[in-house]
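Subject: sequence -> structure tokens, single chain

Hey, anyone have a minute? Need the predicted structure for the following. Not urgent.
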Amino acid sequence: MSQTQAGPPPRALVVDDSAVERMVGEFALRRLGYGPVAAETFAGALRAWESGPFALVLLDMHLPDGEGWDLAAELRRREAAGRRTPMLVVSGSAEPEDRERCLRSGADGFLAKPLSPAALAEAIARLGESD
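Reply:
Had a minute. Here:
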């Protein structure tokens, strides 16, 4: 995503209980032109969501106070009518059923940890192609 107009960059919500993984996500998103907003818990993500809007959500599958698939479903319920925010789940789990559960809950894509900036850029590009 490139910044072509003046003003703040589009905001991206990064949800991960690992400080290192949050920093990696924030770094990658800044390089892609986003302004990241970080949360480390399910509850923190819901509070951050209320400050929206967000152009993208990047969330961990397992959080200390809930699961990423439940968070994706809750964020979908809270979305304004007609506005669908792209959501990508990031996880260390390679289990196909975990991936499917996240996608059924409202996520638009699934990325493996460790997150790489290149993989994130590719996933975001794929989201744009599906619009």
